[in-house]
User: Fold these one by one.
Assistant:
Number 1:
Amino acid sequence: MIFAANLKCNHTRASFENYAKEINSYQNNEDEIFIFPPSTAFSNLKLNFFQGAQNFYPCKNGAYTGEIAQEHLEEFNIQSVLIGHSERRTLGESEEFLRAKFDFAKNLGYNIIYCIGESLETKQAKKSLDFLKNQLDNIDLNYNKLIIAYEPIYSIGTGVSADSKDIEEVLNFLSQFGSNKFLYGGSVNQENIKTICSLKNCHGVLVGSAALKADNFLKMIQIAKG
Ligand code: PGA
């Protein structure tokens, strides 16, 4: 299974060092664990999980004030990136820009967790499937290091995950377009992780708030597998 933690704008360099050590202590040969810390907290430790970047600018380096780029990721041996998270889309990342990020990361052979998700209005208008398919039309689904994270916007950070029935319907629908792996994200916690991970076509989860403490995240992994 795939367990990914998006720490968003939380954790400092000092606190993430402890976090990384705690996750490192988890011995595991079967699962893929991705952790996305803030870029100021990237770790130089030898890690037994994939450390990833929440954001990057699609260039090697250059005159892009405030951005981080390929050189900065590679200094920390980072080869996994999150693209398309709804919080970044809200900050103004267009489909065109997401495509540029995707193509850039793909050309470098990075692992890409590409997030898609619809709003409550779209869901209520029964337009979810078309909307999500459109979001995927932007990228190359044949890229073999692509993982798609379905994160309905109405479930992110709300404490209420989407309905299992709805998640399953969406993942079944999306799985007909390629042989991709799918994660679900949006208020995943200790109570619902096992059910979510056992849904058809669900290969794991992308967790925000419930993963802010390493012991919580490790407990969730145990529950999902137990
Ligand atoms: P959440 O965040 O688990 O706090 O809902 C998930 C995400 O934004 O990836």
Number 2:
Amino acid sequence: MNALPPPLDPAALGLVRPDAAGLGALAAVVGPDGVRTDEAARAAFGRDETEDLCFLPDAVVVPASTEEVARLLALANARRWPVVPRGAGTGLSGGALPVAGGIVLSLARLDRIRELDLENLTVTAEAGVVLADLQARVAEHGLRYPPDPASRDSCQLGGTLAENSAGPRTCKYGATRHWVLGLEAVLADGTRLVTGGKNRKDVAGYDLTGLLVGSEGTLAVLTAATLRLVAAPRTSLTLILPFPTLDGAAAAVAALFRAGHQPTACELVEERALAAVGRLLPLPGTLVGRAAMLLVELEGDDDETLLGEAAALEELVRDLGGDEALAASDPAEQRRLWAIRSKVGEAVKGGSIYKEADTVVPRSALAELVRAARAAAERHGLQAVCYGHAGDGNLHVNLLKGDLPAALWRERRDAAEAELFRAVIGLGGSITGEHGVGWTQRRYLPLRHPAAAIGLQRELKRAFDPRGILNPGKIFPGDAETAPGEPC
Ligand code: 2HG
Ligand code: ZN
């Protein structure tokens, strides 16, 4: 069994960790190969993509059907075991970390695309389907499922539903929630729940589908979803727009939407992020030493229209002090330009322990957000590196540890991050745009919501999960931690 105490004491939450007899009862539900308690599995499922955090679960359980999910939740609820639903573990706010021990429930075996309905333009798929596989399957029919987080090649549909995942295309299409017509879910006590369906409109009662999407595994286990599809555009053009000033880049973001452009993506990389990515791959000369760049993706059905739109955009950018654009419509060349944006995370985080703040502000406050991030970091002797989805006002701010001793890093990190989030709220923003509150942002929830709104959300949690077995310790602040995460 676990040598380390879990950081949240399950007993304080009214929960119990499964003992050997309990694990035997689980095996009776999912079969002996559906339960893993070996060190390797516990270590692998004890971490996700969130910084350097790791918390060992007591067991990893891998059911093969919704029926098995229902039976194992009924058992866990009766015995008050913590249950942490998990997709591929690509989350960035610790949503899938078993912080109170207990069971990690992997949905990986629920991996069927149940139906592609070409009449209604919907697809119904199970939680364990890898997002890129779903996208490829609908693309065979000239269709698109628009949500496209950076983790598309490994993340599972269920994780994207639980986190209401977003990514670069959100400025045109909206996040995952906009594309979900219905859900199949299992409640904490094992009750199966079906919400919505294939109707494009349905205002009968509260919107449970909308509530469950983005509930971070705390209200129910999502096992399948019916999703809306659209026709895929036939052609695209990628533009890189270098700027000598941050304010110029920020002004261009506001101006291009005001002028009626509707890019599929509008991404920003500021100078420190550019410098970091320049250490990983060769940057085009025009980007070296620039204060910022925008990456804009235009999509449509004919090249001529896109070229006309690109020319208008370039003129607008020049008026705001921007430099000459780089453009690509050839897929290989487009991938090369996109790499300058998509490799930033790897470049920034590769060299240092870090803390990521997933900030979002109204688009008009983008430049102020970057300045606030830099100021908060510098006041505490740290460096902030910013990049992300400028079209949504959503920037990922990475605070870097560098070679600071661990204790000093933790102290400075916490102070700088709190200061940053206070500034973000002052700008009318929020404490997370797309990565979720999870474990790492929960202490900041009271900055974002008044007590009455948090109280109401806690009541919802109690209504869905009266014993609090589902993903304990997530979203809500205030549960006592007994220890920090341990390396494992
Ligand atoms: C992105 O926008 C993703 O690239 C990941 O949201 C952000 O680097 C990250 O952590
Ligand atoms: Zn992002």
